[in-house]
Fold each of these.
Amino acid sequence: MTAVPHPRSEAAVPVRSGRRSLALALLCGALGAAVALLSSRQGWSAGAVPVAGGHYPLTVKGSDVTGVPAALAIVGLAALVAVFAVRRAGRLLVAGLLALSGAGTVAAALLGAGDNSALDEKAAQAAGDSSATAIALTHTAWPYVAAVGGALILVAGLLALRYSRLWPAMSGRYERDGAPRPRAVRPVDPDRPEDLWKALDRGEDPTGA
């Protein structure tokens, strides 16, 4: 004889999947945004420029090279929160924005890894010569760390696209059909004029007619 699956056990499967995917998406999204923002504040490359008496050292941070990873990380973090404030098609649109923010962060970080324009700009300022460029260039791993942060945001977006229909939404004053919830009618004492005025202010009929 084959065992018949219990209806409750079948119903619990999507609930568990929703909880796990929600926890993973929150972890990936928050961690990815934090990593991308932190990486943008670190030194991405260094070099030097010849000046009178030797070489002047130069360093540039990720935010000097490109502000896109940090900006998209903030957008992704906002989208991660907004997923719980919308429903149905709106939730899918926000989830798509979250995934695109992660993909854009990865692309911008990788493109900035070999970008020397910020170093050359600093070299021209230090040498007082617009044609001066940086030499002895070195690059750090921070752009790739920012790309990892973007990848985590992308994973959060993909999880939201796949499982967000199972996630809870923020409670509001509206029901699922969009209609406002009916307010309970407070009892009015006809012998108390202040109760009558309060009922009228609430838009209620104090006479009960």
Note: The mean pLDDT is 83.
Amino acid sequence: MKRILLKLSGEALAGPKKTGFDEATVMEVARQVKVLVDEGIQVGIVIGGGNFWRGRTSENIDRTKADQIGMLATVMNCIYVSEIFRTAGMRTSVLTPFECGSFTKLFSKDRVNKYFDRGMVVFMAGGTGHPYFSTDTATVLRAVEIEADMIFLAKAVDGVYDSDPKSNPDAKKYDEVSIQEVIDKKLAVVDMTASILCMENKMPMLVFGLNEKDSIVNTAHGKFTGTKVLV
């Protein structure tokens, strides 16, 4: 793989605190990503906002405004994580689909390619820039746009199950599953819009637990214990 899109769960980045940032968790992510960057792999990153805000947390806020709050949560996450990455010795840039003053630069494929050529890690924040689209959809959209070889989906759960393992101790974990099966069985790997976008653009995903030791590096090196979502 030459280029990957790594999706980080906001909740997973919060670690045991379940909200905000857990710096030790983020430092560990940075250490692993630096291994890939040093090997010449180009890494784009999308981060969810669930450690701060989930789009339908409140019934008293208009959906469009709620989603805008979520977009800003992802910007905060990307700025924070990118700075931790810099501390770990990487060069980074944060791109958004809307103006954020001097905080970020506007997303474009040309800009992403320019930064990748410079050996930078590119954070793609702010979702799609529109309400009613999740960071799942933004992840697949950006992966397709930048022609990533694969999506690495680093979650709080270690793969894809036939039911929720938190509520069903007998839930079965898949080693491999097709994106069509994900759609047909509503397996909730990513939301339906993102799943269809994956299927139509033949974008495969590797789903694994962020908090497992060396999970990002092991996934890139073929020592994979999560779920392959095939297209």
Note: Helices lie at 10-13, 23-38, 63-87, 109-117, 135-145, 179-185, 192-201, 215-220.
